[in-house]
């Protein structure tokens, strides 16, 4: 059994279908996956994200979409329908081609011209500026390419995940406790918000990625993830039971430029924190 197969079979968040043997849950997965393919445009080769701001974006694709590809790969495994695989891989390849800068940091939004199929705008909608390094967006990319390597075995996805991981870990603006500022290039560093959600997503991704790399990188990634989990488990980030709206983590940042969901609990922060803890326990 190779590393990819082993990680896939041991993943703590594998589908409820496998855990419960409840066949009816397959319909939910396949309905959602089918709906996702309806937002895919073969000419552009990507799944469309938003439908608003049509005056700014013709066909916007956000880096967050990389997280949706696991659903498509699950549908592929359940049905054998190659459409799901094709959409996931094509979306990953075109995101890799157009979303990333030479230093492996990512734009948040890339909008495509519907006639040429090529980008007409590259922006970072929730970051400090279009050319900034919005922390959660980088974490989505790291997680997304790690999962796509697990699902496909394509080295280009592993290489991208490693490139993103090293950028984030080694960035001069990454704090020692490994909880990133909401944007690595925020002009207000260090007097600005940290983002617990970015740290939780990153920790979970690093633990999985550590199973695909050489021993030196493995030790590096596990050490960073452990630091992140230990920091998130301190009173600074971990809420007292019964407080914080019954969320686990505090200090998430949704969309700081719009003053939306700033220094608050976030559902996905809790989800990936728990996932990371389980993955770390199972190392």
Can you lay out the helices and strands and say which pair or pack?
Layout (H helix, E strand, L loop, with lengths): L2 H8 L5 H5 L3 H14 L2 E2 L4 E2 L12 E3 L6 H11 L2 H17 L10 E4 L6 E5 L11 H18 L2 H16 L25 H14 L5 H18 L19 E4 L4 E5 L2 H15 L2
Antiparallel strand pairs: 1-2, 3-4, 4-5, 6-7
Helix pairs in contact: 3-4, 4-5, 6-7, 6-8, 8-9, 8-10, 9-10
- Rounded mean pLDDT score: 94
Helix/strand-derived category reads: mainly alpha
Number of helices: 10
Task: Assess the beta-strand content as a share of residues.
Answer: 5-15%
Biggest beta-sheet profile: 3 strands, antiparallel
Strands of the widest sheet, in order across it, are 3-4-5
Tally of domains:
1
* CA-atom Rg in angstroms: 18 Å
As residue ranges, the low-confidence spans are: 1-14
What series of H and E elements makes up the topology?
HHHEEEHHEEHHHHEEH
Termini separation comes to 17 Å
Q: Got a strand count?
A: 7
Keywords:
single chain; 283 residues; mainly alpha; Glycosyltransferase; two-stranded antiparallel ribbon; 9% strand; globular; disordered N terminus
Description:
- With 283 residues, the protein is mainly α.
- It has one domain: Glycosyltransferase (Alpha/alpha barrel).
- It contains ten helices and seven strands.
- The strands form three sheets. Strands 3-4-5 form a three-stranded antiparallel beta sheet, with no helix packed on it.
- A hairpin with a 4-residue loop joins strand 1 and strand 2.
- It starts with a helix and ends with a helix.
- The N terminus is likely disordered.
